[in-house]
Amino acid sequence: MEFVDLKNSGLRVSRLCMGGCPMGGYGWGDVQEKELLDAIDVAIENGINFFDTADTYGLGQSEITLAKGLGERRKDVVIETKFGVRFSNSGTIYDNSPSYIRESLENSLKRLKTDYIDIYTIHYRDYSTPIESVVNTLESLKEEGKIRFFGLSNISLEGLTELLPYRDKFVCCQDEFSLACRKHENELIDVENSLNVTPMTWGSLGQGVLTGKYNRDCSFGKDDRRSRNIYVNFHGNKLKHNLEIVEAMRPIASAHNVSVAAVAIRFILDYLKDSVVLVGAKRPSQIESNLESIDWHLSEKEIELLNSISLSDVNV
Ligand SMILES: NC(=O)c1ccc[n+]([C@@H]2O[C@H](COP(=O)([O-])OP(=O)(O)OC[C@H]3O[C@@H](n4cnc5c(N)ncnc54)[C@H](OP(=O)(O)O)[C@@H]3O)[C@@H](O)[C@H]2O)c1
Questions:
Q1: Is 62 a pocket residue for ligand 1 (Cβ < 6 Å)?
Q2: Can you name the residues that pair with 120 across neighbouring β-strands?
């Protein structure tokens, strides 16, 4: 396994993190609990010590399944979970108020069957609660021993301004980044440098399109989020372009004797220095295939080729 020291924390985590969105069991088509539990076993047996989840994934189901899969091993791993998105009958709102942070944390602790969260992350800023109040609440929870560190996610360049006084306070920032999605690259790098945080990528496989198993005719059931047009990676010209990226990855995968998914992950590991790549997985075979990304490098020529194909579509 390859590890990285998370900024401002002393935590050392695997650069491949098991993403917990599919673990929510909702919106990803067929997801079986037994396969998820086996996948967690395979992840740990192969050196993955970092698990990402959120209170929103399957309305808490992801945290419940993660706790079940980890069992006694919880103390040996680093868990990141997130707060700030509130569902109600009238819709979804972002809420970073002190009372909602505390309420969300207590619920996450219960579901995760733990008395501390390693990294508690602002999923989305509500931009109405002052950032000073959010940081003060998180600092208090740290002093109370309920969280160890806190992180950021989905921060735009405009959103960065209010955070500048808090350099060295947060440990990480998550944003969407992959060969299929380059539009947040500047934000991710600017936030990393300005706040001294570890960059983490989500949608690292373009929600699965970069694994090489989908084609032009792929379609999803209504119970799969990727059937919706907002999951752009699987629709129209974007899908066409993503399949061109896959075709460019195939010979590279063969040359290194690894899966196509592993090449997509390796690109991020090599391209974004000291980053962590979050990858969602539904079953052990997917973890095994993703683990093939570890302990080798793409050549400069291969990186250049993948980079240029990835950037050849203005819509990425
Ligand atoms: N901070 C945020 O706002 C945010 C947002 C989204 C996600 N995240 C985090 O980032 C993680 C990663 O993003 P993601 O899960 O949305 O997308 P992803 O990692 O790009 O794609 C995950 C999907 O790809 C497929 N897959 C994974 N490995 C595979 C393999 N080796 N071979 C074939 N198919 C494979 C699986 O779906 P199929 O088998 O159905 O194709 C899996 O559910 C999430 O799980 C979550 O922890 C954070």
A1: no
A2: 81, 150
The rounded distance, in Å, linking the Cα atoms of 95 and 101 is 8
Q: Which is nearest to 308 in space by CA: 248, 224, 220? A: 248
Residue whose Cα lies nearest atom 21 of ligand 1: it is 207
The distance from CA 35 to its chain's CA centroid, rounded to whole angstroms, is 20
3-state secondary structure 254-316: HHHCCCHHHHHHHHHHHHCCCCEEEEECCCHHHHHHHHCCCCCCCCHHHHHHHHHHHHCCCCC
The SS3 assignment for 217 reads: coil
Q: What residues does 93 pair with on adjacent strands?
A: 86
> Pick from 72, 23, 81, 7: which is nearest to 50 by CA?
81
Ordered by start, the domain boundaries in the chain are: 3-311
Q: Does domain 3-311 have CATH number 3.40.109.10?
A: no
Q: What is the DSSP letter of 184?
A: T
Does the Cβ of 52 fall within 6 Å of ligand 1? Answer: yes
Q: Does 153 contact ligand 1 (Cβ within 6 A)?
A: yes
- Does the pTM surpass 0.85? The reply is yes
pLDDT band, very low/low/confident/very high, at 259 (cuts 50, 70, 90): very high
The owner of tokens 């560190």 is 149
Does the beta carbon of 203 lie inside 6 Å of ligand 1? Answer: yes
Structure token digits, residue 254: 């063969």
pLDDT digits (tens, 9 = 90+) for 181-238: 999 999 999 999 999 999 999 999 999 999 999 999 999 999 999 999 999 999 999 9
Question: Among the options 26, 57, 116, 124, which is catalytic?
Answer: 57
Instruction: Give the distance (Å) from ligand 1 centre to CA of residue 209.
Output: 10
282 CA closest ligand 1 atom index: 43
CA 107, 109, 110, 112 torsion-angle sign: positive
57 is catalytic: yes
Torsions phi, psi of 204, nearest 5? -65, -25
